[in-house]
Amino acid sequence: MVLEDKNRLLKEAELLNQLFDSYERVLSRLEEKMPEKAKYEFLTGRIQTGKKAGRVLQEEKRYLEEEKRLTKLEVQERSLQKELQECRKQLQELTDKQKEAGREKTEKETVLTEKKVRIQDAILQYRSMNAKKEELDKIIKEIKNYLNQSETILQKKEILQNNRKEILTFLKKYER
């Protein structure tokens, strides 16, 4: 919209410049043919026309400056578009990295969970083995007690057998 207005005004300014140029040429010819008073009025009109032309030139200058500013803005817009594209690209890369990190985290959590389960199983097995060991230790202790008692009984039996032999020998001796 600004460009359309600028272009329209530039065309109008160009047409006005052409009109003033034609007007000057006509006035130059008239000036050569006019008397002094008419020349004075003519020059006064020409000065007024020049002032109007000056305003048109000022407008043209203002629009040229506006065009430069617009060009700068367009350059800035393109630059910002490039930056925006770069930011979008970086955002996509970060999003991809974040997704990958999420996948890796999930995989590591899965592995960690599996290791935890294995460790818990090992702990349970260890506890179970300790309980069995304690039970076996009790059984071994009882067996040792029985063996000791059995040994004591055997020793006593042997003593008794020895005593019996002695008694038998003694009885045999006195019996005769």
Beta-strand share of residues: under 5%
Separation of the first and last Cα atoms: 156 Å
Task: Choose one word for the global shape.
Answer: rod-shaped
- What share of residues is helical? over 70%
- What are the segments in which pLDDT stays under 50 over at least 5 consecutive residues? none
Structural class of the secondary structure composition?
A: mainly alpha
The mean pLDDT is 80
Summed up, the helix count is 2
Query: How would a crystallographer describe the biggest sheet?
Result: none
Number of strands: 0
How would you describe the oligomerization state of the chains in this entry? single chain
N to C succession of SSEs = HH
Radius of gyration: 62 Å
Structure notes:
The chain is an all-alpha fold and 176 residues long. The chain is 98% helix and 0% strand. It has two helices and no strands. The protein has helices at residues 2-33, 36-175. α1 packs antiparallel against α2. The longest helix is centred in the middle third of the chain and has 140 residues, at 36-175. The chain starts with a helix and ends with a helix.
